[in-house]
Fold:
Amino acid sequence: MSDRLSSLRETIEKILPDVDGVIALRTGPGGIVAPYLFSKEHPGELAELALWPKEPVPDTLKIILRAHPDAKLAIVCRGCEERGIVEMFKHAQFSLENVTLIGLQCDQQEVESCQCFKPFTVHAKLTVGQPVEGVRDPLMAKVMAMSQPEKLAFWKEEFSHCIKCYGCRNICPQCFCNICALEDEKWVETGRLPMPNPSMYHMVRAMHMTAKCVGCHECEETCPADIPMAVQFRLIARDVKEMFNYEPGAVMDQKPPQLLVLEEGEYENTGLPH
Amino acid sequence: MSPTKRPKERIGVYVCHCGSNIAGVVDVAEVSAWAGKELEQDGVVVARDYKFMCSSLGQELIERDIKEKGLTRVVVAACSPHLHEPTFRAACARAGVNPYLFEMTNIREQDSWVTTDKIEATKKAKALIAAAVGRVAYQKPLESLYVPIDPNVLVVGGGVTGIQAALEIANSGQHVYLVEREPSIGGHMAQFDKTFPTLDCSACILTPKMFDAGNHKNITLLTWSEVEKVEGYIGNFTVTIRKRARYIDESLCTGCGVCWEKCPKKVVDPVFEAGLGYRKAVYVPFPQAVPKYPVIDRENCTYYLKGTCKACEKFCPTGAIKFDQQDEILTVKVGNIILATGYDLFDARKIPNYGYGRLPNVFTSLEFERMTNAAGPTLGKVVLRDGVTQPKSVAIIHCVGSRDKNYNNYCSGICCMQSLKFAHLVKEKTGGEVYQFYIDMRTPGKTYDEFYQRIIQEGANMIRGKVAEITDTARHPSEEGKLIVQVEDTLVGKQRRIPVDMVVLSAGLEARADAKEVAQKFGISCSADDWFIERHPKLDPVATMTDGVFVAGACQGPKDIPASVAQGAAAAARVLSIIGQGEIEIEAATAIVDEATCVGCKECIASCPYQAIQYLEDKGKAYVQEALCKGCGTCVGTCLPKSISLKHFTDEQIVAEMIGAMQTMKSFETVEAA
Amino acid sequence: MYEPKIIGFLCNWCSYRGADTAGMARMKYPPNVKIIRVPCSGRISPELVLRTFREGADGVMVLGCHIGDCHYSTGNHRTAKRMPVLKKLLEYSGIESERLYINWVSAAEGEKFATVIKDFTEQISALPPFVETMK
Structure:
């Protein structure tokens, strides 16, 4: 880890004079790691550069760019964070014209910890660390192996722990709406805990994550009840890839498929009647 | 949605008996009593049933209640809203209730006519009415939007249909841009010699029309041109047209013909002469071409190929040859568009057993048309491929590529009559034997069947049977050197082999190869066979589902000349009636963006089938151009924060409708359980 | 045996007219499906379908114009891409995905409409009431 840390520091030092700031993690007072804007005015702060734990930096980028649209920035991002940035860019949340991506490739230990399917960047010109293979979340196979009543029971049990803190939504870099359908009584029952089955909250959220979830696991990390909700997002992501050949964050100018007309041969993949 | 949030409205419910159509199955009195009692909490203040709601007395009933009982919303349970929604909307409007505060529910087509059990039908009617009552309280008054109509018109395709449409409009005093892909207008009709069933000369009747179109003060003729892009909506289209370089300065050219006389390069003409004749590398497709200016065929011109020649430039008396001319891009504004892009001939090569392209003396119908044309490659003589030998016997095969599951299922409509015309011309020009091979004879036009009888009188041999094969492999000495038509004569019930000198394939009509692309460009749809789809096959045959875009002639489906001309004139009339209105009402139920909550993610923009949603760069928000929005609501189905909504089909309205139906169904369950 | 409660979201131009066509031909089918008319099947958001299940529907139908014949050109293309994903989510959540039914019925296809309603009603009748399974 120290190797990556020092080479990341070197990379940042090299780019720092040419930009207004570099978004990366810093170990702050009390040993708390958080996103931080390093600048050439305070090069010494780079001594406190950190790699881990992962934080939702795409959001940090958005906040800074919203306040300073013309700022020239660099951002250290992992594979999932890069995908998140690309999806936010596609959804016109910011421009990447003045943004340099510094790809930080996750190591084996981090991959194991996240069960990440694609722990490396693909767009960043500058990269630090050697890319390693991704892994499949074993929970996907576990859920798929369940019978229909078993699945129902599994989620009923999992969602019965949900206290509707909305933490999963708040942390998600792709949940950037000003108002949220999940707060609308039309779609999600209010004031009922445990939430009624089926969970409108989690189902509507899963639909909203279609072709959007980049697999960063922030939602699951933040959940106070340890609900593995992103398994559904990942299963759907697999289907969307198979049906419409779309992978969030993979291609800069590819629009989400559900917005577009059917391409040749796509209908056959949908399983709809002829 | 909680009942507390429900708007307080005064709702009237009217249940129609439709004579016995509804009342014979649904207990209408029970339904209206139920609505009055059970839906009172939802705002129903009056519920009535009446024999015929759509009658003037029925409508007056509603109008009186609106005034006397102060109704703010009206629900009618009757037939399909596709039938009488306009009727009741108008009644509401007369009594001062905005037409969009009316809701109709269908208890006839979707209940009494399809449900056997009377109790079940009555329950279904209640659920449907509860749904309508649920929704109507959330409905909002809407005002129609009007946009002015640009009186200019674009006509695409300069065949007889497009010419007719353009002339009708131009003669009325409106301006037309007539765009044609080929160097001259005239289309397929200009290629023909005679027209059925009157046998009048095609050129004689078409040329004056071409001339008029070419010289009309209200027609801008753009030949050798194609539409590249269409933006906008009815009344306000912006059309980008590519006027391809002719390499001729039209302001200098007099059409004298010296250039094509002097041009040393002879080229097979695959378009006008159907590959049967030649033209030069600089050419007009035929002598009566409109406009008179030639084009240089860049792909075959010696100068463009080798860098030398320029014979045309040397001899041109006015210096009109411009080898460095560039394509011009024109942008025109029009209010309406007529597509008259015509058809392609079925490629007979696709049927290998008929031997076209392999057996020299098998001809297509278009080749034969050119052959019989006095101005054509054989100067009107019917001869074999060698150019000299007159055939003693000719076989004419019907339905080539039509009514055949391997190629096109449909009947091309014109081939029977065209084949009869060919039979007459063969007889007239050669005196030889003619054999017609047909599946069924179809001659439904005015004086068409009389023509059929006449051709039989003239001695044509009519053989009913689908030809299996045309071969040059003789089985008998009498077949040597002949083409043999193998067919089962289904009237005699025998296989026959008929040796002939020449075979003419009456090829069917197909949609243009690029019809799909063109349809997409103009925002209209194609059928499975790629014909353009009209708005209604019977009652609106030249309009399309896209307002302001009309179709006429064979681009909509196979048609003969009279039908095409009629459609050209019909489309012109439709366009003129729109221009006459000066402005046009557009869809009131359009989408609208709530800027306060829009996050500017552009998902709605990508999902709109009409490019009706813009991105406001300065605000970072989406914006619906109402005049472009057709009200499909696809954007609403997409928007995650629900910032975009579709007027008259809002989430509140649809959810309330669904809840109304669901709660009623659930209440029946509870009653039954008790 | 119970009477399944079904909501059908039908596009105004093809499927709703197809239902009218079935009516005009006096074809008989079960009364369980209550039709809600929308301009285009593309108007139906996943939220509307989910909310209908939340309300206790045993089945939901979304019927639109055939692909290529959409009144709004390609509105139904979005239906064809959105609804299969929702079906998958139902499946992964342990809800029988056949409770959500998508098909295309043209204005002329009265007979198909009646058949589709009959078949879907039967199919849903074979499942336990939705609300029961959620308890």
User: Anything to note?
Assistant: The CA atoms of residues 21 and 110 of chain C lie 5 Å apart. The helical segments of chain C are 15-24, 46-54, 75-92, 110-125, 130-134.
